[in-house]
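Record format v2
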Amino acid sequence: MSDPARDGFGRERRAGRGRLSRAAFLALIALLYAFLIAPILIVVIASLNAGRFLVFPPDGLSFQWYVNFANSGPFVRSFFFSLRLAALTTAVATVIGTAAALYVVRHASRNDLLRMLLVAPLQLPGIMTALALLIFYYAIGLGGTSYLGLLLGHVLVCTPYVFLTVSAVLYNFDHSLEEAARSLGAGRLTTFGRITLPIIKGGIISGAVLAFITSFDQFPISLLLSGVGTTTLPIQVFDYLRFSFDPTVAAVGTISILITLGVVIVTERLGGLESLYWGSRQ
Amino acid sequence: MRRRRPWPLVAPAVALVVVFFVLPYANLVVMSFFTPARTRPYDPLLTLSNYTSVLTDSFQWWILWRTLKLGLLTTLFTLLLGYPLAYNLVRVSRSVKGILLVLLISPLLVGVVIRSFGWMALLADNGLINSLVRYGGLAPQGFKLMYNEFGVLVGTVHIYLPFMVLSLSGTLETIPPDLVPAARSLGASAARAFWRVVFPLSLPGVFAGCLLVFVLAVSSYVIPVLLGGFKVLTTPLLVVQTAVDVHNWPGAAAQAVMLFAASLACIALWVKLMNRAMRGLPG
Amino acid sequence: MSVIAVRGLTKRFGSVVAVDDLHLDVRDGELMALLGPSGCGKTTTLRTIAGFEFPDAGEIHFGEHRVTGLPPERRNIGMVFQNYALFPHMTVYGNVAFGLEMRKEPTASVRARVTATLEKVQLGGLEGRYPRQLSGGQQQRAALARALVIAPDVLLLDEPLANLDAKLREEMRFYVRSLQQEVGITTIYVTHDQAEAMVIADRIAVMFNGGIHQLGPPHEIYHHPQTWRVAEFIGLTNFIDGRIVGQEGDLLVLDTELGVLRCRGPAGSAETTGASAQAGSARGRSGDAKPERLIAVRPEAIQLTQGRALAGEARLNRLPGVVRAQAFLGNFVDYRVEVAPGVLLRVQGDPQARFAVGDHVEASFDPAAMWTVPAREEAEA
């Protein structure tokens, strides 16, 4: 729908001086995107760097840091620990968040207080929440290094994401589809399973993806609630980085990036985007 | 046959938030009134001493000031850098927008620790930038880009820039594209049309974006630690230190509450300012 | 077997009464249209009959079964929604088969019935398509097929043609009607389009503000509206305020701002009207005995002549007037004729004998082509 003679604000593209300032603007934009991407590219490059530091001219290629990672007990343990924790967190958060969204959108859409409450964990700084949880856990006898405590903390900050994405899809959901199913003889449960769920699938999946990534990369909560044996990958990396500059971290980071990318791509393929299209009101 | 609302659906989520969010924060506030103890994290004895010590400690005020400064500077730079990005984002075609959004969001998917490492590799004394600078002969000793406030600022601006861009572009999208041609037809130059028409209408997005970024920047922990070393102490670091290293929970709680209060004060000021600036805007 | 009986149906939304003590009987095999402007309660009534709304009071029966309180899936209804509500993630076949699946029909039977019904609605061969791949009219027919294949007791349609463009809507009216008659299913059809209701319905229930103002076959609604609202909603009407002052045979004599006019009385109750007019007492809705009435006359029932060309039928009402506006619409001319200072009558005239603006004319109307309705209430006028 874009008219090549007009830009996004309807102005005609002018030649001459206009073109120069436009070029300068676009150069700025390109620079800014480079700024955004730079650290990630650097991480990937550093992971393949033969030397310890990134220097110019470059030292050469090497996979030594990946080997280092594979041989490092703590890194590998924390890596799998984070994966398992993220998977469990995602499962719990998705169920709780979806159920809450179903309730709020259909039965309490005007209850602002409820909605604010459910989204609140996102509004306050993670480090403060972590501190509050630490002190609270001691008060109730859970202690600061239990797996359950860590899990609950993760679920707490991940559920709002599922709640938000599922709410968004539900808000646009065409209710007459459910009514049509009922009029044809489907009970409430059947209608939910055969009609509602397939159509809101996209929202649930994107929420689950966000929850997984948030948990896998989660820092503040893990920092204060981790213990020996319950160390997540970000905490392990952090501990290494505080005292030295170790490119093994870059290898870890690159693998982390690849996993995140993989999760996003796979879920998009599973039809996440498509069902978002189905569910929208005509 | 009236059907009752299926509240069990929302019960787990509400229980989770109430028990593991509201209660802990309430507990934190209560904790700030307890007494620090030597052998234990705290004594359940009510006192105001934590607050008095926070309010009278000039070191803490200095830290707080530095934290707020970091928040303000981060907000300022993300606004300056984010506005062009947002402006561009709403002007491009659908497919390009998709790609740009991926570029914008992808750093967020990577995790703050990894990203900080990337900046370390770039900004360190033996990092890439200094290496390039030395290679090019621009400055033999290189620049001190890390373990100082500059490094921290770069880190926070980088991490919170996407939030500002998304907030701004959300509002910019709602501005009807005909307004600029209308202004131009009435004699305004491109710059004039922007400042008198587009910018004022984008203020709600500016307002929301700045608020969001400020709150996030003021409470950031990882970046000041990794990119500031032990040289840049901000209040969140102080709070964690007091709680975990010194085992002074009441003190840490009081510091946390002070940080909240200071943030709220800044927010209130900002809201007042923006309300005045946004008088007469639709919605 | 399928008779729909609604008694005392009342439904409130907060402080708004959407349906007020409504009674309705739908006969076996008939198509009953619920007609009215938006907000009149027709959709709420339909949804309550379907089971998607719970009435605050009243009973609904399908034949002998008491249906009030049953959820929609147990009422054996077929429903067509305004936006079709076709399941986007299923093919046409999947959609149409859905109701049969819910009834646990064996697969072979399902296949046979779905295929047959799709043929009937001229969608044969499109089973594998998805709803978004169909045109508006095709989606409409798919929705019909889905509702009919299950052989429901009752068919409920909620403004099913509202989303189609005008030409298609006109065609689909006849199509829906013939399909309904072929199947012989008892049907309730909600619409705000009076032309649509006139074309397809066996009987029309005209609704305003939660109540039925008149129930009857289309020609009766058109020629004998019982309230001014019904008269105003169906077709075009001129209204003249008047007061009953007497009676001549089966005609009422009324004193109006345009002089004395004679008008046919309400069907079969000329005596009651005359007697009660003398008594001067106000009574209920239809057959109202208040002397204040509105005379209603359709624009096509008024004849315009130049001067006094018509030899006197003493009974005819005649008014002198001046043409103030005219518009040529192809098959007729639309005039506004001023018959008294500030009083304009709308007249539809023969395109062969056209008058120009400013022409002095005589407007005459046969009392048999006019009728009276109760005057507007103080509050509602």
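Residues 239-296 of chain C form one domain.
The CA atoms of residues 112 and 118 of chain C lie 10 Å apart.
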